[in-house]
Design goal:
Structural class: alpha/beta
CATH superfamily of the largest domain: P-loop containing nucleotide triphosphate hydrolases
Strand order of the largest sheet: 2-3-4-1-5
Radius of gyration: 25 Å
CATH architecture of the largest domain: 3-Layer(aba) Sandwich
Shape: globular
Number of helices: 21
Number of strands: 8
CATH class of the largest domain: Alpha Beta
Number of domains: 4
């Protein structure tokens, strides 16, 4: 097992759940987004359960393999399996593990997924080996138990600052900051700012580790102010694996494994703010080389690859979202493409159509239901209105305002645009507030 010099922080619930799965199932796939901490959690669980395996736990690092054919050789090297003329590496592994009870950890499978699936399937069928795999997508073979790993727990913005140190993301930031600056501590002055930093970083352990390493040159307030480009702020650290030296590098690793169609949809999905439905994705993202009926299949692939976060357990229709870190990355790629203006215009027209279709329902018997639905879509509506002002599509913006008159007034959003802080993003909102006020006056 590899040696890690930094402490493991939090994840008590996840450790218990993955430990239970590993001890009850022979194949567990620990999946999750880039930088969410799959490797560290797998290592912690393997250390805890290895005593339950007569022949121990063995770690196979796959991140640096460029050729899928080398996957069996990597496992054979770790297990000290000797060469045997006339026998393939996979056959020699079967022979070596025939009478043994081993936990084999396959770390970073995503870029050699088919080879890992073949290795796992063969060993599960021919030996008593158990396998714990870390990957951004599952191996998708029979008997696999999947455990999607979420980012670290985060305090809600409404929580009193006195209580935030109980959350894993905050604990990790403080502990890693202290490794750089020993006298770093949560204080009345910086607690709210540290909480904001961790929320902006989506609770991703890699991002928090890289950004917290800046405390010796920046204050927490300065770090928070620079997080509009946190992919750049999360810079190289000697504490991380070489393919994870920057947050952008970790995401690049995922993006490069996508098909061209998957890349195109991921870029286009960055136009949504606060999430979207399947219908919205089909309406806004289809076209220009992508048929609407392909969107569901491609969206499913991005979910499987831990790039899109699904919300399917509530009533009604499923919702999907990008972690803000991934949305910023995909948005940068969309801006660099020739689709930026087209996608935002399509997004605006989609919300204009929905707003006008919703208008009569706001006076009907299900008014509260439609108001709540609009509340969930408010970030997208706000983004569409801001775009209408930025690109001077004033008629479309005023039509949305007019259609949602009751929503704006009942939910008290009319004054919202007059409370801006003067930032570049707030100025369109301030103009929008004036448009709203003038529209309602006349």
């Amino acid at each position: 097992m590899p040696t890690v010099l930094t402490s493991f922080v939090g994840r008590r619930r996840e450790i218990a759940e993955v430990r239970r799965l590993v001890l009850s199932s022979r194949l567990v796939a620990l999946t999750g987004a880039a930088g969410c901490g799959k490797t560290r959690l797998a290592l912690r669980v393997a250390e805890e359960v290895q005593r339950n395996y007569t022949d121990g736990a063995h770690w196979v690092e796959l991140a640096h393999l460029a050729d899928p054919a080398l996957v069996p050789q990597a496992a054979a090297r770790v297990l000290n399996v000797v060469d045997h003329p006339g026998r393939t590496t996979l056959e020699r592994l079967q022979d070596a593990l025939q009478d043994k009870r081993v936990l084999l950890v396959l770390d970073n499978c995503e870029h050699v997924l088919s080879a890992c699936a073949e290795l796992a399937g063969t060993l599960l069928a021919a030996t008593e080996t158990s396998i714990l795999a870390t990957s951004r997508e599952p191996l998708s073979i029979a008997g696999e138990m999947r455990y999607p790993l979420s980012p670290l727990s985060l305090p809600p913005s409404s929580l009193p600052t006195d209580d935030i140190d109980q959350f894993d993301a905050i604990q990790l930031f403080v502990e890693r900051a202290r490794a750089i600056l020993p006298n770093f501590a949560l204080t009345a002055d910086n607690t709210a700012v540290v909480s904001t930093i961790c929320r902006k970083l989506d609770g991703l352990p890699l991002a928090i580790e890289l950004v917290s390493a800046r405390v010796n040159v920046l204050t927490a307030e300065q770090i928070a102010a620079r997080l509009d480009d946190h992919l750049a702020l999360a810079a190289t650290s000697h504490l991380t694996h070489s393919h994870h030296r920057t947050l952008r590098g970790a995401i690049d690793w995922s993006y490069e494994l996508l098909s061209e169609e998957e890349r195109r949809l991921l870029r286009r999905l960055s136009v949504f703010v606060g999430g979207w439905s399947l219908a919205a994705a089909e309406a806004v993202c289809a076209g220009e080389g992508m048929e609407p009926e392909r969107v569901l299949e491609l969206l499913s692939a991005l979910v499987d690859k831990s790039l899109v976060v699904p919300h399917t357990l509530q009533r009604g229709e499923a919702r999907y979202a990008l972690l803000e870190t991934m949305r910023q990355y995909a948005r940068d790629l969309l801006i660099a493409s020739d689709e930026w203006l087209l996608l935002h215009d399509t997004h605006l027209q989609y919300w204009l159509q929905l707003a006008e279709e919703t208008e009569p329902k706001l006076s009907g018997p299900y008014q509260q239901l439609w108001l709540n639905w609009l509340e969930g879509e408010h970030p997208n509506i706000r983004a569409a209105l801001s775009w209408s002002l930025e690109r001077r599509h004033i008629e479309a913006g005023v039509r949305i305002v007019n259609a949602l008159y009751q929503y704006w007034t009942i939910r008290d959003y009319v004054p919202e645009g007059l409370a801006g802080d003067g930032s570049p993003w707030e100025r369109p909102r301030a103009r929008l507030g004036l448009v709203l006020v003038e529209h309602f006056r006349h």
